[in-house]
Design goal:
The structure holds 2 protein chains of 2 kinds. By secondary structure, chain A is mainly α. Chain A has a single domain, classed as ABC transporter involved in vitamin B12 uptake, BtuC (Orthogonal Bundle), CATH 1.10.3470. Chain A has 14 helices and 2 strands. Chain B is globular. The chains are: A mainly alpha, B mainly alpha. At the A-B interface, helix 4, helix 10, helix 11 and helix 14 of A face helix 7, helix 15 and helix 18 of B. Chain A: It is found in: Cell membrane.
Chain lengths: 336, 433
């Protein structure tokens, strides 16, 4: 029994990756939940919005790299983020004006918005593939590791290494900053309060003189920022591929629904629940258990509950369980 | 329908012209290839229209049911693999039964046991999962070890492939029943996410469970319901026929095979249209529309809304599964790696919305029209891009990029078509009434 080694192995293979992934999912789910709370529909184009924002960031990064601008040990993409957010904001505001506004004035049923978002999804997906192509893009530069597995071993004298990638640390730090700003904005500023009022009770908000178009505009701006940041962090941590971003839709929706659609706190909790479940269940726990259990109980197999290809199944099963037993999610969301 | 008939005839005439034009300007082989897939697309659209148009169920898991139909076709029509079946077939069968028994026991425990139900369910699931894996895994290993390079799966039943079509539909219906039982109580957005997830899971299972249909190693060489081109080319009667028409036997044989497929598919499509039209006009169809338009009122009239929803969900999925089995037969292979939601779920939705939800003829029209566009946007886009880039310097970066990107035009086009129809003709090209 070597509890310390077990802990380090667990941290290295489960805790650290799942935390980073959870932060990325949480940011994505926040975008979905904001749209659901204020515009009142499930936006199927969210994955592709993330892809578009990330694409803008990648292209700006290339531009910066060509000009010789860098961010020292940090990835240049962080410098390019503002440009990406602006590009993404222009795109979603344009989409809103061209597509969603018409149905909003008509007071169309939510499912019409969802179908419209399918169309938007096609267009954005095509646009991204058209501009940057369908292939993998690696755009992370700067230091790769904060601490490598070997350094950790020599430092601590343990058998197991703990590697923390720069991108993982950046993901968590950026996510904390973004969430702090978001909650400050929603709870303290006038615009944020009017957004919450609009989400709670549309008629009452209109009656008290809140301008709905302004609320909608701010929502899209925040969604663009969240989507671009989430997408860029995911891309830095793994890699950028339009199809992967489209597929992220499922865990992101699962996170938002598990937490309670329309509830920002829920979206964050949901993101981490989904990420930890996915990583724990699809990771072979043999190594961890081998250290944690006495020798006589050491497992023979890999103790991998499900193969990694079933990670969608994990988010899905959690989603179904929550929906069946707590239809409004962990934190009371809306249920229209 | 009567007031719309001229419109319908005109639109179908237009689509027919598109196909004829393809035949005259490109080749009849291309036209028939598109037409055959158009027939299958029309059947898929009919299935989705049953769920969405009749009952308002938002199913975005079409891809999963298409793939299940394909799996059914493989499991029924491929020749049996006796060695693999004896090596691990029994273990796998017992394992699957045990897995199913675990789930049933858990559900029973949850509904029947008054106290500590949750813990008992958890215990049953945990023990059941371990037993399930310990019985199943050795069987799977044994099966996959048998000649992995060319087989490694349990093989099929060796029945004629036409029998496989309805069985593919049944398989999809069975899964749809399980999905419907759990997810149909949810409101529309949640049902959409749930079905989206199911489809991904079905594909993940088909990719990974090699013992079933070889996973990403693909099953190829499915038996065909029509003769092979090679056999036709050496058959005296066919060569005679071809020379009579003044055609080269090789081209004639490919066209003959495609026509044979088209005939088979057309029979299925016509049968389905007849059935769906009759169903829609029957009291059952009126009840369905009443439920769709006002669930509360229908429930007040004593209609069992949940049961009707489950019924139509299963029926629609069966039709989609049937189309999936037909598609796998047409391709002659099952390739789980190529199933993508944009192509097999959302494109079918574009067909239904553009064609006119609630109208069976509309779905058929949408199926043909959108499939034709999906295929033809690429050559048309290439022409367009050649025109745009004609003035640019050769070898310039933008020119190369634009010409390379033509392949992605189709997604853009489909999105724009969907948005335009939704905006300016929200009830589709052939509205319900």
């Amino acid at each position: 029994m070597e509890p310390l080694n077990a802990l380090v192995a667990f941290a290295n293979f489960v805790l650290v990756p799942a935390t980073a992934y959870g932060a990325q999912l949480a940011l994505g789910a926040l975008g979905v939940t904001l749209i659901y709370g204020i515009l009142r529909f499930s936006n199927f184009a969210h994955g592709d919005t993330m892809a578009f924002g990330t694409m803008a960031v990648i292209m700006t990064t290339w531009g910066f790299q060509a000009l010789g601008i860098s961010f020292g040990p940090l990835p240049t993409a962080l410098l390019a983020l503002p440009v990406g957010i602006v590009a993404c904001a222009l795109l979603v505001l344009g989409t809103d004006k061209l597509v969603y506004k018409f149905y909003r004035t008509k007071k169309a049923v939510p499912v019409t918005f969802v179908i419209a978002s399918l169309g938007v999804m096609f267009v954005m997906n095509g646009l991204v593939r058209f501009i940057i192509g369908p292939d993998d893009q690696l755009f992370s530069d700067g230091e790769r590791f904060i601490i490598t597995a070997r350094d950790f071993k020599t430092l601590s004298g343990l058998d197991e290494g703990l590697a923390i990638k720069t991108t993982q640390a950046i993901t968590v730090v950026v996510a904390i900053i973004v969430v702090a700003i978001l909650f400050w904005f929603l709870n303290k500023t006038r615009t944020g309060k009017s957004m919450r009022a609009y989400s709670d009770n549309e008629d009452l908000a209109l009656l008290s003189g809140i301008n709905p178009e302004r609320v909608v505009m701010y929502t899209w701006l925040m969604v663009a920022a969240l989507a671009t940041i989430a997408g860029t962090l995911y891309g830095l941590d793994k890699s950028f591929k339009p199809f992967t971003y489209f597929q992220l839709l499922l865990p992101i929706f699962a996170a938002a629904i598990v937490g309670g659609l329309g509830s920002p706190v829920g979206a964050i909790a949901g993101g981490f629940v989904i990420a930890f479940a996915e990583v724990t269940i699809t990771y072979p726990l043999k190594k961890v258990l081998g250290y944690a259990l006495p020798e006589s109980l050491e497992p023979d197999g890999l103790v991998q509950l499900l193969s990694t290809d079933y990670k969608f199944a994990v988010s899905f099963v959690i989603l179904i369980i929550v929906l069946l037993f707590r239809p409004t999610g962990l934190f009371k969301g809306k249920s229209v | 329908m009567t007031s719309q008939t001229p419109r319908a005839i005109a639109l179908f005439g237009l689509v027919a012209l598109l196909f004829l034009g393809t035949g005259f300007f490109q080749s009849w082989n291309v036209a028939l290839t598109i037409f055959n897939m158009g027939l299958i697309s029309a059947i898929m659209a009919l299935g989705v229209n049953m769920q969405w148009g009749y009952a308002g169920l938002f199913n975005v898991g079409v891809m999963g049911f298409v793939a299940l139909g394909g799996l059914g076709a493989v499991l029924v029509s491929m020749p049996p693999n006796a060695e693999a079946a004896s090596a691990g077939g029994l273990r796998i069968a017992i394992g699957l039964v045990l897995g199913a028994a675990t789930v049933v026991a858990a559900i029973l425990a949850y509904t029947r046991v008054p106290r500590f139900g949750g813990w008992i369910v958890l215990a049953i699931l945990l023990v059941g999962f371990i037993v399930f894996r310990s019985v199943l895994d050795p069987g799977v290993e044994a099966v996959e070890a048998v000649d992995p390079a060319s087989a490694g799966n349990i093989g099929g039943l060796g029945l004629p492939v036409l029998v496989a079509w309805p069985i593919g539909g049944l398989l999809a219906a069975g899964v749809a029943w399980i999905v419907g039982k759990t997810a149909l109580g949810l409101r529309s957005d949640y049902l959409a996410i749930a079905t989206l997830g199911i489809a991904e899971i079905v594909i993940a299972v088909m990719k990974n469970e090699d013992w079933m249909a070889r996973g990403v190693k693909n099953v190829i060489g499915l038996p065909r319901p029509v003769p092979y081109e090679i056999d036709l080319q050496v058959a005296p009667w066919f060569v005679e026929l071809a020379t009579e028409f003044g055609a080269d036997p090789v081209t004639a044989s490919t066209i003959f095979v495609k026509l044979a497929y088209a005939g088979l598919f057309a029979v299925v499509l016509l049968l389905l249209i007849w059935l769906t039209q009759a169903a829609l006009a029957s009291p059952w169809g009126r009840m369905m529309r009443a439920i769709r338009d006002n669930e509360v009122a229908a429930e007040a009239m004593g209609k069992d809304v949940t049961a009707r929803h489950l019924q139509i969900f299963v029926l629609g999925s069966a039709v989609v599964g049937l189309a999936g089995a037909m598609m796998t037969t047409l391709d002659g292979q099952l390739t789980p790696g190529t199933y993508q939601p944009l192509r097999y779920t959302f494109l079918i939705w574009v067909m239904v919305i553009v064609g006119g939800s609630g109208n069976n003829w509309g779905s058929v029209l949408g199926g043909f029209l959108i499939w034709w566009l999906w295929v033809q946007v690429e050559p048309l886009g290439a022409l367009l891009m050649n025109g745009i880039t004609a003035g640019m310097a050769d070898g310039s970066w933008l020119k190369g990029h634009l010409l390379d990107s033509v392949a992605h035009m189709r997604l853009l086009t489909m999105g724009i078509i969907l948005l335009l129809v939704l905006r300016f003709s929200p009830r589709g090209l052939l509205p319900e009434r």
